[in-house]
């Protein structure tokens, strides 16, 4: 799936809608929109995305440096969104949108959990965006990818699969090289096995949360982005994430 996207993007998208040469921070929300998210969970996610968008627009330090892309896995298979616009699989358009103009998609829940392919696409669009920024002479902070799911990886027919194992050495190499920072968050009724998958993906930054605390999760991503801009050390990010996890009881639904 991810190989269908071009490794580089057209020049006209290299400096999308920014008014200055601020250092960029690509941020990918890799979101589970499979059928298990139907009803209140997907509505809670949509509401949280709208509130977070307003906060991004009001945050001077983030609004002109953060670039947001959304990847979903569910009824549309694995999909990339450019703001509210669903992109065709081979669209030669960057899914990243400057935070100050970002508007979230209206997500619906259906289909299966192609988690492995969605994470691969997320990594691919980050690499492509970094290449574009370098080609344009623009600097960037370490990108962030946030994977959010309430289930286990499946294949296209909805059957559980172990294909996610192929990501483990790749993610380990990417993290060692500091190419991006990955957060892997389990919500709702995610099982012990589901938690183990997330732990394998992101050994330092994984969490299993009761309910669907999407609002707090997105605020944590903003806090992490702010820390990245300030050149914080790893211990700061670990503290931010630890505080996010320990607030869990207040979010139980």
TrEMBL record:
<dbReference type="InterPro" id="IPR002035">
    <property type="entry name" value="VWF_A"/>
</dbReference>
<feature type="domain" description="VWFA">
    <location>
        <begin position="26"/>
        <end position="240"/>
    </location>
</feature>
<dbReference type="InterPro" id="IPR036465">
    <property type="entry name" value="vWFA_dom_sf"/>
</dbReference>
<protein>
    <submittedName>
        <fullName>VWA domain-containing protein</fullName>
    </submittedName>
</protein>
